[in-house]
UniProtKB/TrEMBL annotation:
Name of the molecule in the record: Molybdopterin-dependent oxidoreductase
Annotated spans, Disordered: 1-22
One Pfam family linked to the record: Oxidored_molyb
Protein source organism: Curtobacterium citreum
Record-annotated Oxidoreductase molybdopterin-binding domain positions: 36-179
Length: 197
C-alpha cells in the first residue's frame, strides 16, 4: 500500500498516485498528532470568535450550525509525510462566517483552546477552501482529532487544520503561528513541498 513506482516509465503502482503530493505516503488509518494534551470541550460551551479591527463576532455551536452544514470529501496531507484520500467530513464553510464580518485585514491567526496557533491568509480560507468541521468518517470528531470542532484546510499541510479551534484574529501581516515559529513553512502547500523554511 505504501510503495509506489515512479520515474521508470512503468505502470503506476497505485491508481491514486497522481493525487499523492511529492514525498507523501498513503495511509489508511488516521494518525494523531498533538503538541499538547487533549482538552475536554462540550459543544454547549464551545464558541467561535472572529476578531477584526472593528470588533469581535462570536457564534455559539448552534449558531455556527445554522449557517449551513456541508458534507465534503477531501484528501489530507500531513507534513510528517502521510496522506489520506477521500475522507468524508461535515462542517460549515468559513465563507458563511465571514459573510457577517467586516474587515480589510488580509491575514488570519487561527487560535485553539490550549494555546495552539497557526497563520493562514484570509483568501485561502474563503471560496470553499476551508471549514469548521464537526464530523469525520460519519462520526462526531473524536476529542483527540480536535472534537468537538476543528478547522479543516485540506489544500494546505494538515498542521494548518487547527484542532479544538476557538477563533480567528485578523491581522495586517502574515505572522508565524506555533509550528511556523518552530521552523515550519509560513504557507504550507503540499504540492510545492512547502514543509520548512
Ligand atoms: N490545537 C492543535 N491543533 C493541531 C495540532 C496541535 O498540536 N494542536 N497539530 C497539528 C498537526 S501538526 C497536525 S498534522 C494535525 C493532526 O491532526 P490529527 O491528530 O487529527 O491527525 O493537527 C494539527 N492541528
Ligand atoms: Mo503535522
Amino acid at each position: 500500500m505504501a510503495t509506489f513506482t515512479r520515474g521508470f516509465g512503468g505502470r503506476r503502482a497505485d491508481r491514486d498516485d497522481t493525487r499523492i503530493p511529492p514525498g507523501q505516503t498513503l495511509v489508511r488509518d488516521w494518525p494523531v498528532l498533538s503538541a499538547g494534551a487533549t482538552p475536554e470541550i462540550e459543544p454547549e460551551s464551545w464558541t467561535f470568535s472572529i476578531r477584526t479591527e472593528n470588533g469581535l463576532h462570536t457564534w455559539t455551536w448552534d449558531e455556527v450550525h445554522a449557517l449551513g452544514v456541508e458534507d465534503i470529501t477531501v484528501d489530507i496531507h500531513c507534513v510528517t509525510h502521510w496522506t489520506k484520500l477521500d475522507m468524508p467530513w461535515r462542517g460549515v464553510p468559513l465563507d458563511r462566517l465571514f459573510e457577517d464580518v467586516d474587515t480589510s485585514l488580509d491575514f488570519c491567526m487561527v487560535h485553539s483552546t490550549g494555546g495552539y496557533t497557526t497563520n493562514v491568509p484570509l483568501d485561502e480560507l474563503l471560496d470553499g477552501k476551508a471549514w469548521i468541521a464537526f464530523e469525520a468518517d460519519g462520526e462526531p470528531l473524536e476529542p483527540e482529532h480536535g472534537g468537538p470542532a476543528r478547522l479543516l484546510v485540506p489544500h494546505l499541510y494538515f498542521w494548518k487544520s487547527a484542532k479544538w479551534v476557538s477563533g480567528i484574529v485578523m491581522q495586517a501581516d502574515d505572522e508565524p503561528g506555533f509550528w511556523e515559529n518552530a521552523g515550519y513553512n509560513l504557507h504550507g502547500d503540499p504540492w510545492k513541498e512547502e514543509r520548512y523554511w
